[in-house]
Amino acid sequence: MESLTFRHTTQKALPGAKAQAITGVVASGNLEVLLERALPASECTVEIETPIRGYGEVWAAVVADFVARAQPGGLRITVNDGGARPDTVSLRLLQGARLMEV
Amino acid sequence: MSGWRQERAVRDARIEAGRAHASGKVVAAEHAVALLEAILRPGDRVCLEGDNQKQADCLARALSGCDPSRIHDLHMVQSGIVLPEHLDIFEQGIARRLDYSYSGPQGGRIARMLYGGQIELGAVHTYLELFARYFVDLTPNVALIAGVSADREGNLYTGPNTEDTPTVVEATAFKNGVVVAQVNEIVERVPRVDIPGDRIDFVVEADQPFYVEPLFTRDPAAMTETQILMAMMAIKGIYAEYGIRRLNHGIGFGTAAIELLLPTYAERLGLKGQIATHWALNPHPTLIPAIESGWVKQVHCFGSEVGMDRYIRERSDIFFTGVDGSLRSNRAFCQTAGLYACDLFIGSTLQIDLNGHSSTVTQNRVAGFGGAPNMGSDPHGRRHPSDTWMKAGREAQVTGDPALMRGRKLVVQIVETFGEGLAPAFVERLDALELARKIGLELAPVMVYADDVTHIVTEEGIANLLLCRTADEREQAIRGVAGYTEIGRGRDRAMVESLRQRGIVRRPEDLGIEPLDADRSLLAARSIKDLVHWSGGLYEPPAKFRNW
């Protein structure tokens, strides 16, 4: 297992009022994403538990692109990874953010 | 013996020797080994029929049962190295030299044997190349082929899986060779004559029906959102823009997703009748919903597909069928159709380098080529225009007098940036080069060369390589769709953005596609069972796909 934490500053809060959402599944090649509105509007954290070591740089790039695109201010995001490919991670993060905007 | 008919005399002697084990032309399965030992000579060129679908497996077992002290040093010239027996005969010393084209399931073992020097390799060909050489310098002395049934005269019914048989028989029978057919049964009268009896010398009644691999069945249940997103981009960014009507698809999940999006997503875009009407394609089960929705006008097939026979029989407006009602496939003709009559090939691959060369070879496997390099190439002998072909020609760099411009076939690679086991699809250097060095191949096994590729589709976007004007632009266009692979992360972001402004790199949002809309609910069928329903119960999936 490897634990990674990324902290980002955002320009604005994610719209919507939903307090919490969950998307994806814990399965091989997939991942589960828990999103909670628990931080100040200018902050976002992503905490990752992954069974595959050595992909820190890729996770950093995926998370940075997600934050730039979704501006998920105020979210604490927890990822339970099952060895998902980066494109799947990116898709699940965006799906999660959309669920929180409802 | 007259000097100009020696081959004929040798053939007559072989037939005479074989007759000792036959009743007329018919040979019982238990005498197959004796028959082969009688008709074969050391050093013969032999085609043991087998490709990526049907297999002359009874005759393969018989050949492997021959006595190596009598039958040895054979030169095998055949499409597929698929069954264990195809390689056993090299270990036994029965065969020595090999020219072939496809080795899917035996890819690992053949690599080890090539490396160990147990096989003397001529070359790895494409199907069409090997067929062509059958008529020039690799003509078989003996062909061992497979059919469904035969009568006592040798008239052969190949059934829906005609595949390579007419080509193999043509080359062998008309050049003094001996043709042996294994059939599932001997009948009074065959349903249709696929090969006339005077081209078949012996008929072996097989102990069990010949094996066919269901290679073209993709279960919609396993299709991912990423594959659906890529399919949406291909439809909107390529099929619609170039108005592609005549086409060929590879066998991956990305192209199967395109087939399943035609009656749903593409229908909503108003593209029915504008794209994907005429096909050179095996009868993919995932094409059923598009056929049933009236999208498809016509399909010619390389071979058949397990479970599709009843469906095809009831859809003769779409498929080529014989007087008996069942499919007539033909690999050589369909390959030619894919090469010269189609405006687009789209398929998947395992590795793409920074120029756009691609390969399905990994360090330890030689999978061979099959037909992909022919489908995935721009044929310089084409001389008829189409709107699609001319548009692609205009996009490519025109040198010299524009009035002498030729069109271009679209050759599209559709790949996820990471494959099985997080293996990146984009690499600095193809594994094929290392393999070629290791086993001493003069020509590295490249599936599709860079100068034939026109577009690369990944989940990140579409790179249009036709529009690139320099090597640098080309490299950055490829990096620009390579996602989070090392190649992708090594991009020059400013340059990729400028390529995006010029439409050379296009993102989903540039095409008006929202990635979050790429949902399994877009698939016309979400399971094999759905495909059965679409077919009105006519599609009969093989057992391994019946998961309900």
Topology, please?
The complex is a heterodimer of chains A (102) and B (548).
Chain A: E1 2-9, E2 20-24, E3 31-37, E4 43-50, H1 56-70, E5 75-81, H2 86-100
Parallel strand pairs in A: 4-5
Antiparallel strand pairs in A: 1-4, 2-3, 3-5
Chain B: H1 6-19, E1 26-28, H2 32-39, E2 45-48, E3 54-55, H3 57-64, E4 74-80, H4 84-91, E5 95-102, H5 107-115, E6 120-124, H6 127-134, E7 142-150, E8 156-157, H7 165-173, E9 178-186, E10 202-205, E11 211-212, H8 225-242, E12 246-249, H9 253-268, E13 278-280, H10 288-292, E14 298-300, H11 309-313, H12 331-340, E15 344-347, E16 351-352, E17 358-359, H13 372-375, H14 387-395, E18 410-414, H15 431-439, E19 455-458, E20 461-464, H16 471-479, H17 486-489, H18 493-501, E21 505-506, H19 528-534
Helix pairs in contact in B: 1-2, 3-4, 8-9
Report the β-strand fraction of chain B as a percent range: 15-25%
Pair of chains with the largest interface and how many residues each contributes = A-B, 15 and 15 residues
* Cross-sheet strand order for the largest sheet of chain A: 1-4-5-3-2
How many domains of chain A? The number is 1
Note the total helix count of chain A.
2
Gross CATH architecture of chain A: 2-Layer Sandwich
Largest sheet of chain A: 5 strands, mixed
Alpha carbon gyration radius of chain A? 12 Å
CATH class value of chain A: Alpha Beta
Largest sheet entry of chain B:
9 strands, mixed
Structural class of chain A: alpha+beta
* β-sheet strand percentage of chain A: 25-35%
What share of residues of chain B is helical? 25-40%
Uncertain regions of chain A: pLDDT < 50 for 5+ in a row? none
In terms of structural class, how would the helical and strand content of chain B be classed? alpha/beta
Low-confidence stretches of chain B: none
Radius of gyration of chain B: 24 Å
- The overall average pLDDT of chain B, rounded, is 95
Query: Would you list the SSEs of chain A in sequence order as H and E?
Result: EEEEHEH
Summed over residues and divided by their number, the pLDDT of chain A gives a mean of 94
